Amino acid sequence: MRNRRLTLQALASAAAVSAFPNSVFAQAAGEFPSKPVRYIVPFAAGGQTDVMARLIGQHTGIEFKQPITVDNRAGASGNLGADLAAKSPPDGYTWLAITLAHAVNQSLFSNLPYSLEKNLTAVAHLASSPLVLVVNENNPAKNLAEFLAQARAKRLNGGSSGNGTPPHLGLELLALTAKLEVTHIPYKGGAPSLNDLLGSQIDFIVANLPEASVHVKAGKLRALAITSAARHPLLPDVPTFNESGLPGVELENWTGLMMPAGTPTAIVDKVAASALRALKLKDVSERVAALGFASTGLGPAAFNDILKKDVARWREIVKTRNIQPG
Asked: How many helices (H) and strands (E) does the chain have?
């Protein structure tokens, strides 16, 4: 009889414990945030991802009446900061800025200490930006057709900001789609690769639009085609790859917000709604456009779909092109 009473007490205790987190989470969502939030940016300060995180953090912080502190944790192709966020408490007080590179990293690195899909949860897809094929102003190719003829006549050297970065992915996607043999030259960042293109030390780059557009407008580089589905306001005279006769070279580098898996849905939705409201503010939208981004403003479900599709898409391309981490 005593054993039966103990068993019943244990079951009652277990039921109370299982119910407790829900009541705590409901309360936490209503009170959230009641202390400062850490917004991990897994890249160096000053880049596009960092600026976007600071813009969103500034305005959500005003709305939430709590400071949103950006914590730059660069290293390991963005994996250092992502792993830190993935292993943080799922209480809503750790946010992570991610990009297309993180979706690619899932197949690019064989021993990642975290899983994008299992250890993190999608909050908001914030903005995206295409890439652009650029050559030096002295290159005789005036359009994509002339560039492709040049690339088929002689193996060209293409630069990028590093293995597995969006410019590298753009190069590989171009080579795969057009059936080109090119030599990839990885650099430690976009600026060094563009400097060598300006000096005619490499032949081309499929570059991040904001980084390249400055040199294109100055007449130092020539833009031949853009990886978006439609032309871009920053370079309205540059045709898309599809317009230029090479469909399939579509690629958008994007930035989004995630949290540790297990973060209460009410908190995820609250943060997502605030971030999407921030994107609609005039000063934010103008700054986003100046960065070369287009605001996307997608919530958790839509962002999760994008993540799944990009992880699957780039897994196949990484395998086909034998892309290796730097």
From this structure: 12, 10
